[in-house]
Amino acid sequence: MDALDLAGMDVLDLSRLQFGVVTVYHFLFVPITIGLSFLVAIMQTAWVRTNNEKWLRATKFFGKIFLINFAMGVVTGIVQEFQFGMNWSDFSRFVGDIFGAPLAVEGLAAFFMESVFLGLWIFGWDRLNKKLHLATIWLAAIGTLLSAYFILAANSFMQHPTAYTFNPETDRVELTNFFEVLFQSTAVVAFAHTITAAFLTAGAVVAGISAWLLVKGKSPDVARSTMKLGIVTILLGAAGLGITGDQQGRVMVEQQPMKMAAAEALYETAAPAPFSIFTIGTLDGSEPVFSLDIPHGLSLLATHTLDGEVQGINDLQEQYEQEFGPGDYKPNIPVAYWSFRFMIGFGMLAGVWALYALWMTRKGRVPHGKWFRRSALLVPFLPLIGNSFGWIFTEMGRQPWVVFGLMQTESGVSPTSTSGLVITSLASLTLIYAILAAVEFDLIRRAVIIGPPEEVADPFVADESGERPMSITY
User: Fold this and answer.
1) What's phi and psi for 307, nearest 5 deg?
2) What b-and-e string marks burial along 411-441, b requiring 16 or more CB atoms within 10 Å of the CB?
3) Residues 6 or more apart from 242 whose CB is under 8 A from it?
4) CA torsion, points 269, 275, 277, 283, in degrees to nearest 10?
């Protein structure tokens, strides 16, 4: 293994950087796919129940955006899984017996389910019974949930390993109970938090695009209805994130106390513990220099009591040295601290915008101000940024562990990887992803500028010649 590359970064740092780029980029599409699949299903259900053409037009319009995003998610997701064999073969060998099980089920069952039913939805408009066709989009949406759950179950083993035994002869961990891995508390709360974030994200996409269409006067009957749907989804998602975030925080305090301490830059164990609004620490991350706190705030969040004890970074470092041996067990404190706040902050901004949009469009009003139009274009990006910082916090806050308490990140890198190989693949993927991002943005931009179709023939009603209108294009 090369000691250093030309830029001074070793293979470990380069491999982590590449995995981070691939993961964050892929997760831009995942929450939109999950949330938008259900919102499109709701739109089509509204059309089937009311026979109001505006909901069919809405289904066609946002269905096109959903399909563009789904295709991008599939492409980037495949590359995501290649990373385990490319740069993290020792990690894959060590946990493959456990980590591979939920991923295999996700690929063979959940992803297969969503892909098959999505295909039936795309090509079945003029071929299937109306209610049967509606069922296909709902089943595809449920498939996205199942895919998310199995992937999060695999990731949760990295956060909190359970249901395993270590085999010293093979130097691997082996699965003892598949269902315990699937349904451990870490997986359950991570799924709930991720899905509510997905609905917040999809709601922001629908509401933001609809608000822009409304201001521009494009299909106002469709735009007003879908904007309301998006706003309600944002507000419900924001409320759900508060509840599930609280649950996830309590689980994190029990299972990864160092991550919570790093998120709050809490260096010394405290009871009661304050919630940090703003903290500046020393360059080596060993102690705070200045901090603006809310008294008792962290104790209330972490323990649901005003005087509960929360362990600090320095005390946990000593504890881990005794448990795991000499080493630095602190994550990057500034990254953990600020990514935690950006995750929360950008999600809250989306919720604030939803209330603002609700007020601006009350009693049938049509806002025309430039600030509303600009904010409508901005709001879909707010939860996407929050999601990205959420995953950065989740993964960076676990460091130096790739599997908490079992394998450190430096031990999971492929032994045959070199700096040159990783730099080449990183540069190639970054270039390809930049091109794909430009393509998707342009496709969605064009779709939004065109707007919903002004008139759509009912694909389930035959015309005078007895033929159904072809309706598989979007």
Assistant:
1) -120, 20
2) ebbbeebebebbbebbeebeeebeebeeebe
3) none
4) 10
β-pair partners for 164: 175
The answer to whether 328 and 400 have CB atoms below 8 angstroms apart is yes
pTM of the model: 0.89
Contact 433, 76 (CB under 8 A): yes
Sign of the CA dihedral with 10 first, then 15, 21, and 23 last: negative
Please state, in angstroms and rounded to a whole number, the distance separating the CA atoms of residues 186 and 180. Answer: 11
Q: Residues 463-474: pLDDT tens digits?
A: 555 555 555 555
Judge whether 174 and 164 are in contact, CB under 8 Å: yes
- β partners of residue 174: 165
Q: Which residue has tokens 């916090």? A: 393
CB burial string 349-361: b at 16+ within 10 A, e below: bbbebbebbbebb
pLDDT in tens, 240-274: 999 999 899 889 989 999 999 998 888 888 888 87
- Residue 462 banded pLDDT, cuts 50, 70, 90: low
CA torsion 332-338-342-344 (nearest 10°) is: 90
Q: Rounded to whole angstroms, how far apart are CA atoms 86 and 428?
A: 14
Residue 463's contacts (CB-CB under 8 Å, 6 or more residues apart) are 457, 469
Q: Which two tokens stand for residue 315?
A: 């005390």
Q: Are 377 and 208 in contact (CB under 8 A)?
A: yes
Q: What is the pLDDT of residues 200-217, one digit of tens each?
A: 999 999 999 999 999 888
Q: How far is CA 164 from CA 20, 94, 149, 300, 353, in A?
A: 27, 12, 20, 34, 45
Sort residue 214 into left (φ over 0), alpha (ψ -120 to 50) or beta: alpha
